[in-house]
Specification:
alpha+beta; four-stranded mixed sheet; 26 helices; 12 strands
Length: about 700
C-alpha cells in the first residue's frame, strides 16, 4: 500500500505509463543490441494520403506510421511518445551502465550500484524469495489484531510501506501555503475498484484469473494448493470490501470529495479497532492535532474488516501485498507469474520488457534527480531552455487574449481568470536545486533492500515537509521523463527536459510544427488551470469558486458538452471512453490546440517570412503553415495499442486514447476545417461542436 503524497492536483499531458517494476530474473541481462532511432518532427512518410483528412484526420496524419510500426512484443502500445521515451531511456541506460562499471563521483557510485544490483540476474535467482522472508515472518508472528498498528509502523519504516493505513503530507487545499497530514484510500491490487464490483462478463473473467494468479503465487511460496486457494479467497474478499468502501475515480476528481479535516479523536472514533495514536506517535507525529481524511468511507471500511475478518485472513491479505510488491525483483518463477497476469492477461503484452529497460526505469524512479543531473548536461543545452521559454511566453499571451475574447464569460470572472493566469509560474527542463540523496543507502548486492530503502527515503522526505513552507521549486517528474504536468495547488506548469526533444520540440523546424507539437503541450498544461478541476482552484492554489453564479452555470454546461461528446468515442468493441473521467484532459487538449494556434497565427503575422523558413509560395512540403500545425499535433499522438490495454486505459486513465485526443480536439475547432477545406457536416467538421476555452 504505497501512495504518493504530493500535490492535491497534478494533471499530466499523457498516459502516466507507470514504469514497470525492476527486472524479472527471466530474460537477458544484457543491454540493447542497437540504439533506438531518434523520432523526427513532421514525418511526411507517416501521412496516409489515401485518407481524407476531413473524414478521419488521425488516419491521414498517422496511417502510414501505424502500418509501418507494429507494437513490439514487449510493449502494450507503441507510438511516437514511446519512441522518444525509448530513446531517452537508452541514453540514460548508457549513463547508468558507465556508472555501474566505472563511477567518477559519489553520486554515480550510488546510482550505478542501484542499477547494477537490479541487473544482476544471477543474484536474483540465487536469493529467490529470501529478501521478503523477514517481513513475512513478522506477519506470521502476529497473535492479535491489537498488534496491527505497531506492525504497520514497522512495515512503513523498514520495508515497502504500510498496509492498512498510510499517512503523508500534502498541501492544504483550503490554504495552499500550509502542508498538512493526510490519509487516503488504497489497498487494492487490480487496476481499479470497478474491477472488483462490475458485473459484466469481462470483469468477472478477470476476477477469476486474478484469483487463480494469487493462488499460484501462494503456491510458489510452498503453500499447499488447498491452503493457497483459501488464502487467495481471503485476499479477494478483503480487497472487494475495500473496493466497496472506496470512492470512484470520477468522484475523486472533485476536491470537495477528498477534503475532510478531522481531529485525531474523530479519526479514532471512525476506526476504533486501529491504534492511531500508536501509529502516529511512532511516525514522529504525536503533536499532530488534525489531518485530512481523504476518504472517510475507506477508513470505516477498514475498521469493519478488522472487526469481521479473522486475524488469519488479515495476515493472508498482508502477506499477499508483501509478495506482490516484491515479485518483479524475486526469482524467475515469481517474476514470470507476475508478468503473466499483470502484463499479459490484463494488458495483452506478449513478451517481458527487456531487463535493461526495467532496471533503467527503476533507477530513474528511485534516484531520478541523481541520474538526471548527468543526463541533462548531455541532452538539454541552455539554448533549448531559453527557446522553450519564449514559446511559453507566446502561449501565455495567446491564452490571455483568449480569455479576453470569451463570449460566454462576464468581465467580473475574466478579471479573476486573468489574475490566475498572471500568477501561473513555469518550470522548464530540470530543477534549480537537485535533491540530496546522501541519506539513501544503496548496496550492490541487495536489489530488494535498495527498493525498500528508496521507498523509505521518499516517505521520510515527504513527512519532513509537515509544517514547513511549500517548496514550489520541487519537481514531480524526473528530467528524462517524456511528459509534462500542471500542479494545481502550486499554480505552475512543468516541462521536463525529456519531452523537449523531437518530435515535440525541434529548433531546426519551422514554428508551425513546434507550435503544433510542443506548443499544444504548453497550452494543454496552461488550460489545466481552467478545466473542470483546475478551475476550482484560485490564483493562490486554494479551492475557492471565483466564477459568478451565471458564469459557473455556463462553464458547467460547456464542460458537460465535452464529457458527453467523449463518452461517445469507442476505443474497443463495447468499450467507450468515460467522458467524466477524461474531462480535464480532454478540456486541456481542446484548449491547448486553440491557444497554440492563436499563438502561431500571431507569430506568423508579426514575423512574416522570418517565421516560415523553407516555404515556397506559402507552402512547405506541399502544406500551408496551418496544415503543418495540425499535422504536427496529430503526429505526436501516432500510435498503436493492444485492445486489452485500451480497455484498461478507458476504465482507469484520465487521458483519452491517442486517436480520440486528435479527432476529438480537431473536430471541435473550426480552424481545422478551414485549413483542410472541409465542409460542415463532415466527421472532422461537425455541425455541433464543444468549446470551453
Amino acid at each position: 500500500m504505497r501512495w504518493l503524497y504530493a500535490l492535491p492536483l497534478i494533471l499530466t499531458l499523457c498516459v502516466p505509463g507507470r514504469a514497470q517494476s525492476p527486472a524479472a530474473p527471466a530474460g537477458d541481462a544484457s543491454g540493447p543490441s542497437a540504439a533506438p532511432k531518434q523520432p523526427i518532427s513532421f514525418d511526411l512518410s507517416a501521412i496516409d494520403k489515401t485518407a481524407d483528412p476531413c473524414t478521419d484526420f488521425y488516419q491521414y496524419a498517422c496511417g502510414n506510421w501505424m502500418r509501418d510500426n507494429p507494437i513490439p512484443a514487449d510493449k502494450v502500445r507503441w507510438g511516437l511518445f514511446d519512441e522518444l521515451a525509448q530513446r531517452n531511456r537508452y541514453l540514460l541506460y548508457l549513463d547508468l551502465k558507465d556508472a555501474a562499471a566505472s563511477p567518477k563521483t559519489a553520486l554515480q557510485t550510488k546510482y550505478g550500484n542501484y542499477f547494477a544490483a537490479c541487473m544482476n540476474l544471477e543474484l536474483a535467482n540465487r536469493l529467490g524469495a529470501k529478501p521478503i522472508e523477514p517481513e513475512l515472518a513478522q506477519i506470521a508472528a502476529l497473535t492479535g489484531k491489537t498488534q496491527l498498528a505497531a506492525f504497520n509502523l514497522e512495515a512503513d519504516r523498514d520495508y515497502y510501506g504500510a498496509f492498512l493505513f498510510d499517512v503523508g503530507v500534502a498541501q492544504d487545499q483550503k490554504d495552499a501555503s500550509k502542508q498538512i497530514l493526510a490519509t487516503r484510500q488504497g489497498g487494492l491490487t487490480l487496476p481499479d475498484r470497478d474491477y472488483y464490483l462490475n458485473d459484466d462478463g469481462r470483469s468477472k473473467k478477470i476476477r477469476e484469473q486474478y484469483l487463480a494468479h494469487v493462488t499460484k503465487m501462494f503456491e510458489l511460496m510452498y503453500d499447499s494448493p488447498e491452503a493457497a486457494a483459501r488464502e487467495a479467497s481471503d485476499v479477494m474478499r478483503i480487497e472487494t470490501a475495500l473496493a466497496r468502501g472506496s470512492q470512484s475515480r470520477v468522484e475523486m476528481r472533485d476536491p470537495a470529495n477528498t477534503y475532510h479535516i478531522m481531529t485525531i479523536a474523530q479519526l479514532e472514533a471512525s476506526s476504533p479497532d486501529y491504534d492511531w495514536k500508536q501509529f502516529l506517535d511512532g511516525e514522529g507525529l504525536a503533536k499532530v492535532e488534525t489531518l485530512n481524511v481523504v476518504s472517510p468511507g475507506y477508513v470505516k471500511t477498514v475498521n469493519a474488516i478488522l472487526q469481521t475478518e479473522s486475524l488469519d485472513a488479515v495476515k493472508h491479505y498482508m502477506r499477499w501485498h508483501v509478495l506482490h510488491a516484491a515479485a518483479p525483483l524475486l526469482s524467475g518463477a515469481f517474476a514470470t507469474e507476475n508478468f503473466n497476469f499483470f502484463q499479459a492477461t490484463l494488458n495483452g503484452q506478449q513478451e517481458q520488457t527487456p531487463r535493461w529497460e526495467r532496471c533503467t526505469n527503476a533507477t530513474d524512479n528511485a534516484l531520478g534527480e541523481a541520474v538526471g543531473q548527468d543526463w541533462v548536461k548531455q541532452n538539454f543545452p541552455p539554448t533549448a531552455k531559453a527557446n522553450v521559454n519564449k514559446l511559453v511566453t507566446a502561449l501565455d499571451t495567446a491564452l490571455a487574449e483568449d480569455i479576453k475574447a470569451l463570449p460566454w464569460m462576464s468581465d467580473e470572472t475574466k478579471v479573476q481568470a486573468e489574475a490566475k493566469l498572471a500568477a501561473m509560474e513555469r518550470k522548464i527542463g530540470y530543477p534549480e536545486h537537485w535533491r540530496d540523496y546522501s541519506a539513501l543507502v544503496v548496496k550492490r548486492d541487495d536489489p530488494v533492500g535498495n527498493a525498500e530503502r528508496a521507498d523509505q527515503f521518499e516517505t521520510h522526505r515527504n513527512l519532513a515537509k509537515l509544517g514547513k513552507p511549500v517548496d514550489k521549486s520541487e519537481w514531480g517528474m524526473t528530467p528524462p521523463t517524456v511528459n509534462a504536468y500542471y500542479a494545481g495547488a502550486q499554480v505552475n506548469i512543468n516541462f521536463p527536459a525529456g519531452i523537449l526533444q523531437p518530435p515535440f520540440y525541434d529548433d531546426k523546424i519551422d514554428p508551425a510544427v513546434d507550435f503544433g507539437a510542443i506548443g499544444v503541450v504548453i497550452g494543454h498544461e496552461m488550460t489545466h488551470g481552467f478545466d473542470d478541476q483546475g478551475a476550482k482552484f484560485d490564483l493562490h492554489g486554494n479551492v475557492h469558486n471565483w466564477f459568478t453564479e451565471d458564469d459557473l452555470a455556463k462553464f458547467n454546461e460547456r464542460t458537460k458538452c465535452i464529457a458527453d461528446e467523449y463518452s461517445g468515442f469507442q476505443v474497443a468493441p463495447g468499450q467507450n471512453l468515460n467522458g467524466r473521467l477524461t474531462l480535464g484532459e480532454n478540456t486541456a487538449d481542446n484548449g491547448g490546440l486553440r491557444i497554440a494556434f492563436r499563438a502561431l497565427e500571431e507569430t506568423l503575422a508579426r514575423e512574416g517570412a522570418a517565421a516560415e523558413p523553407g516555404y515556397t509560395d506559402g507552402k512547405r512540403d506541399g502544406y500551408t503553415p496551418e496544415q503543418r500545425y495540425f499535422i504536427a499535433y496529430g503526429q505526436v499522438w501516432c500510435g498503436n495499442q493492444r485492445e486489452e490495454a485500451a480497455r484498461v486505459q478507458a476504465r482507469t486513465n484520465p487521458h483519452s486514447t491517442g486517436e480520440w485526443r486528435v479527432k476529438g480536439a480537431v473536430q471541435n475547432f473550426p480552424e481545422f476545417g478551414k485549413a483542410f477545406a472541409c465542409h460542415v457536416g463532415q466527421p472532422m467538421m461537425p455541425v455541433n461542436t464543444c468549446q470551453v476555452w
